[in-house]
Amino acid sequence: MSTPKTTVHYVEDKINSWQTRSPFIILFLASLVGVATGLIGSLFQIGIAHIISWRMGIADSEFSNIYIKCLVIFLITAAMGAFSYYLVKKYAPESGGSGIPEVEGALLDLRPVRWKRVLPVKFFGGLTALGSGMVLGREGPTVQMGSSLGKMLADTTKIKNKESQHTLIATGAGAGITTAFNAPLGGILFVIEEMRGEFSYTKSSIKAVFVGCISACIVYQLIIGSSPILNIGTYISVPLNSIWIYIFLGIFVGVIGALSNFLILSTRKFLDLFYQKKEYFFVLTGALLAGFFGLLTIFLPDITGGGFLIIPNVIDELYSFYPLLILFSLRLIATVICFGSGAPGGIFSPTIALGAILGVLFGICARTIFPEYDIHLGTCAILGMAGLFAASIRAPLTGIVIVIEMTSSYILILPLILTCVTATFIAQTLGSTSLYSEILNNTLDKLGIQRK
């Protein structure tokens, strides 16, 4: 007859046996990380939308004087920017920027994951920075918050094994991308491709990333909905006799991607030196930038925000060539300044918006030069989104899949591959490196840490 003690030993032996064959414990924890990331990412998106709606409501209100209206909007958004930058400066400097380089550094055991500080700072700092109208994306905050949730769960459950800790951190990062773009496969590929130099791939770790991204997607779709992020219609496949044209689109966006990375890194270096002069310069910069972009939402709203809202207008040809060229130039400058300033926001969304504009500009030119081909501007926009993403982030597979999942443009897979491979090759040929790897290297150099 079995005793309670022998029964406990039997159960423990069974669990250890199952764990040896299939690490279900780490998979269960990965699912919790995915659920938590999907929840906090969805709340983050809803919060940003409410803040923007509230701010635009104030901007649309009737004021007796336009100057009073401008002053009110400037003061409100400047206060939001000051609050965001103050949180970063005071409590978690690693929350500045997208946070993805910090995640990559954590996977190399070169950067700490101070989740108790990062989670509130990134959430509330990101809400106010993105809500003010600055040209930033929500994917960077969701990735860093997701990885912080992974580390939080590892610490809470007292997991000491480094590989398991890294697995949960990477799972949170992939779940963050999934939540930002409603793109589970994109989140998985982001970890596999972008973090290939930092993440240790094993059968169990890859399964955990899959489980986390699927869990995050389910939670996101339950809260936000299952519709693609961008509803820009459907497109026919590109005829094979004209597919070669998109090699030139890849060259075009590859050059712009390399230029964009150079400008962002140069701006970061310049502002880092500027911030060292006075302690309050960082917060002051945030206040002035947020106030300025808050004002722009009254007069030039298309230059502000992440950029997803302008993509349908660009594709529907609401802009002629030269106004579109001016819009691209202004948004490029705004992206470089906002992201380069150290705001707690990402760059994926602004980059995708810039890519859409570049694609349409290319399409207008191609239609003029090759009138015999049926060139759709929407197709060019989708290819431009993925191409510029690939050139800037140096992750062509991730760019292809994220854009496909965002737009449901599966039929464009062949020209997408052609454009992204060409764009990545051109950017690499010009000496451009991955933006996130370069930011991490600069951070480690400032701290005197040698990268492994």
Describe the structure.
The protein is built from 18 helices and no strands. The protein folds into 2 domains: 201 residues, Clc chloride channel; 208 residues, Orthogonal Bundle (Clc chloride channel). It is an all-alpha fold and 452 residues long.
Summarize the topology.
Blueprint lengths: L3 H18 L2 H37 L5 H26 L8 H8 L7 H17 L7 H18 L5 H20 L2 H11 L8 H21 L21 H31 L5 H19 L11 H5 L5 H20 L7 H22 L7 H17 L2 H12 L5 H17 L5 H13 L5
Helix pairs in contact: 2-5, 2-6, 2-7, 2-9, 3-5, 3-11, 4-7, 4-18, 5-6, 6-7, 7-8, 7-9, 8-9, 8-16, 10-13, 10-14, 10-15, 10-17, 13-14, 14-15, 15-16, 15-17, 16-17
Quick description:
Helix content is about 75%, strand content about 0%. With about 450 residues, the chain is mainly α. Helix 10 (about 245-275) runs parallel beside helix 13 and helix 15 (about 375-395) packs antiparallel against helix 16 (about 395-405).
